[in-house]
Amino acid sequence: MVETRQDLAVILASRVPIVVVETHDETRFLDLITGLIVRGRPTDYRPLFRWTVTTGLQRLDIDLAPQLHNAPPDQVLRHVRSVEDPGIYVLLDFHPYLSDPVNVRLVKDIAVAPREHRRTLVFVSHGIELPPELQPLAARFELSLPDDEERREIIREVARDWAAQNPGRVKADPKAVKLLVQNLSGVDRDGVARLARAAIHDDGAITACDLPDVAKAKYELLNRHGLLSFEYDLARFADVGGLGRLKQWLTERRRVVSDPPPGLDPPRGLLLAGVQGCGKSLAARATAGVLGRPLLRLDFAALYDKYHGETERRLRECLAQAELMAPCVLWIDEIEKGLATGDGDSGTSRRVLGSFLTWLAEQQGGVFVVATANEVQRLPPELVRKGRFDELFFVDLPDGETRQKILEIHLKKREMEPKSFDLSRMAQATEGFSGAELEQGIVAAWYTAHADGAALGSGHLLSEFLRTRPLSVVMAERVAGLRSWADGRCVPAA
Ligand SMILES: Nc1ncnc2c1ncn2[C@@H]1O[C@H](COP(=O)(O)OP(=O)(O)OP(=O)(O)O)[C@@H](O)[C@H]1O
Ligand SMILES: [Mg+2]
Question: Which ligand 1 atom sits closest to the C-alpha of 274?
Fold first, then answer.
């Protein structure tokens, strides 16, 4: 804590004209800076102000009523520009107004004024992107996150509060408390208090039952840009037909991934490339299921579309968030959409690729990455070079035996008895079908049977399959292209 305070003191003393603070913990920052100025009384004391659009400008170091007339963003800036006295102006949630060129210019006027004016603008928001013309004039300050000890203390305090308002004490299972403290790493003080309150207030106890909800709530708290999604739907190996080699690979590494022996680099992840609808996404879900970790999905295509120009920063944020959620599986679906080079935007793609590769190489193994790709030809060579991922698997069309297994799985899933169907005949009739097409066939045949008022039988299924022209036939060339790309690069997943 001491360190944080000193950092802030140093930044303020350096008289950098703009300070940027990205935090959800506005109260804590205000406490920190007020403590520093009011109680610390530094040698270069300056008056301290706080501004919000709803309350205007207010002096914090002495008791003065808010000056409401200064509420509009441009007015407060004009005011600061015109008073040539020293001062520290903390502007809360000013970020939306920085898209206005007039405000940007006013901020710059203040920032480039002679140093003797000794004015500092401190922008405090949950997220803030300074326009490029202001960046050279600014310093960033980060509030440190609470450590284990501090989180434990916050939880204790919440428990004391609860006990003060309710009869009895909080029943705390020591093991659950320890896990709670651990699981709340990466969450700021407000967040820790809020999540601890949620865990305690329902039943006056901290038990193992609280933990899954805490994980979910933590995910929601951290995922403020909505680019990582929390996937509830995990699979088991039994849900996946075929892919024997992939299953074996994961089984052999399950232990090491969760608990790497000292000195050994734990596996960081794998890439699944292959034919559409053959179970890549399903295998990603099964990986999380088998490793017993929560699954976070990162949509690369959306990262590009939504945050054009900020892609790299957003990616870094997403990866940092995944690390905060560790241990977890990070599933990057359609990785080629975000990393493919050769489009008009190759500068960004390169940088994003660079950031991603650096992260992949440096992260400590708490995040196991499963990347999936369809259009493998678009994958940049750097990504598929040996040593990036622990293994590259090629997911091909299922063979006869696997098709039979897949049919079995999906019939069972719909509560039908596989033995009452002629599955080997169906497996023969479905050469070239993907797993997805087999599943689709079952669904379509079921509807037909239902419309006929009959129970689903082999006849319905066969006629449905005979009617279907699988994608692998329609796009034979693409499949051949995929296979030749994979040859020598990938290990067959089956
Ligand atoms: N090997 C398999 N075993 C069982 N079901 C499968 C298999 N392959 C595909 N399926 C079924 O087809 C559905 C779609 O497959 P999935 O989404 O995993 O394929 P994909 O390879 O990710 O396809 P895409 O390239 O379109 O993303 C799965 O949810 C599952 O129901
Ligand atoms: Mg998929």
Answer: 21
CA of 288 to the centre of ligand 1 (A): 16
Q: How would you label 62-73 residue by residue, b for 16+ Cβ within 10 Å and e otherwise? A: eeeebbeebbeb
Do the beta carbons of residue 51 and residue 63 sit within 8 Å? no
Distance CA 383, CA 32 (A): 44
- For the domain spanning 237-395, the CATH number is 3.40.50.300
Structurally, what CATH architecture does the domain formed by 400-474 represent? Orthogonal Bundle (1.10)
CA distance 432 to 348: 38
Every domain of the chain and the residues it spans: 2-141, 148-221, 237-395, 400-474
Per CATH, which fold does 2-141 belong to?
A: Rossmann fold (3.40.50)
Q: Dihedral sign, CA of 487, 490, 491, 494?
A: negative
Q: Ligand 1: which of 236, 281, 443, 482 to mutate, most ligand atoms within 8 Å of CB?
A: 281
Give the tens place of pLDDT for each residue, 40-99. 777 788 999 999 999 899 998 887 777 767 789 999 999 999 987 899 999 999 999 999
* pLDDT tens digits along 360-402: 988 877 899 999 998 888 888 889 998 899 999 999 999 999 9
Residue 164, pLDDT > 80, answer: yes
Q: Is 409 in the pocket of ligand 1 (CB under 6 A)?
A: yes
Cα–Cα nearest to 60, from 28, 38, 86, 80? 38
Residue 261 has phi, psi (to 5 degrees) of: -65, 150
181: CB partners within 8 A, 6+ apart? 148, 151, 152, 155
CA distances from 231 to 210, 247, 293 (A): 19, 20, 11
Helix (H, G, I), strand (E, B) or coil at 373: strand
Q: How far is the CA of 435 from the centre of ligand 1 (A)?
A: 6
Token digits for 430?
A: 């479905």
Token digits for 29? 């920052």
Q: Please give the helix or strand (H or E) that residue 383 lies within, else none.
A: helix 381-384
Per-position b or e across 187-209, b if 16+ CB within 10 A of its CB: bbbbbbbbbbbebbeeebbbeee
Cα–Cα nearest to 211, from 238, 181, 244:
181
pLDDT digits (tens, 9 = 90+) for 344-353: 556 777 888 8
Q: For CA atoms 111, 116, 120, 121, give the dihedral sign.
A: negative
**Is it true that 237-395 and 400-474 share their CATH fold?**
no
289 phi and psi angles, rounded to 5 deg:
-60, -45
